[in-house]
Design a protein that fits this description.
α3 crosses α4 and α8 packs across α9. The protein has ten helices and five strands. The protein is mainly alpha-helical. It has one domain.
Length: 213
Amino acid sequence: MLYEFGKRIIDIFGAVVGIVLFAPILLSVAIWVKIVSPEGPVFADIKNRVGKDRKPFKLLKFRSMVPNGYEFLKKNYPELHKKYEENNYKLDSDEDPRLIKGAKFMRKFSIDELPQFFNVLRGEMSIVGPRAYYFYEIDEQLQRYPETRQYLESALKVKPGITGLWQISGRSQVGYVDRVKLDAKYAENKSLLYDLGIVLKTPYVVLTSKGAC
């Protein structure tokens, strides 16, 4: 109980500081996305993500792709689409035809993720936690890796986070099975001190683009 209260207070404080600190970047990126890709919205049209206890929520993220990127890839680049699904729903930025101008830079330094401070403020996410999963991702990956079910159940008992153990351990370089194990490890060992250690490691990971795609 004390942990949950303390974590929420820290989340609110961190979200407010993050929004104020990054306000110029948030505004600049919003304008940039609209200029280079006026046919779509500023924010990505994200399918429902899986929150704590499987509660769905809309994750806020700057759009770094053409509108309807998943359908665009599937229709126009079937081979890349197949690779995308087989590679933990990831493509290297250099081969992804969906990206808009400036997207590589945004993704490299996780700038597209900054709006998630508003998700934290609304209580849907935390500063620290597992990376938010898609519902369809869980269904498909459980068919491939049924042995991960126990780890997934543990991971979904906490709120997803802007940063977390997976995010500082290689991000896209970490496959689904290892990712779920890392998320479960965090959920089972969560503490404010553990969160602090992850937060302190995050700037280095972002600035060095470790695991970014």
